[in-house]
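Lecture 7 notes: from sequence to structure.
We start with the chain below.
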Amino acid sequence: VQLVESGGGLVQAGGSLRLSCAASGSIFGINAMGWYRQAPGKERELVATISSGDSTNYADSVKGRFTISRDNAKKTVYLQMDSLKREDTAVYYCYAGRFNQLHWGQGTQVTVSS
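Predicted structure tokens for the same chain:
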């Protein structure tokens, strides 16, 4: 499974960004997909997940501001990020679960300025 993220960048606090993650390769059997993030000097943390049945789960820190969705036809998962805060600054990694293995994208930088 290959995962390619896009949509990161620099945005002012209060602004919005939309991340995309496109899956290719051996995509049969992919179930949950989602996003983690890692800020400098911190551990990687879960941001949001979405199951194959479209059940979603969010970190408390992003609830009400971020929305995860997926387009199964396009094999793509999205993360709509609104009301961004400086503390959302991090590298965001897409993941896909397939047959008890996790596959990762290369990461995309999100920087929120004040």
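Points to note: The mean pLDDT is 95. Residues 91 and 109 are 4 Å apart (CA to CA).
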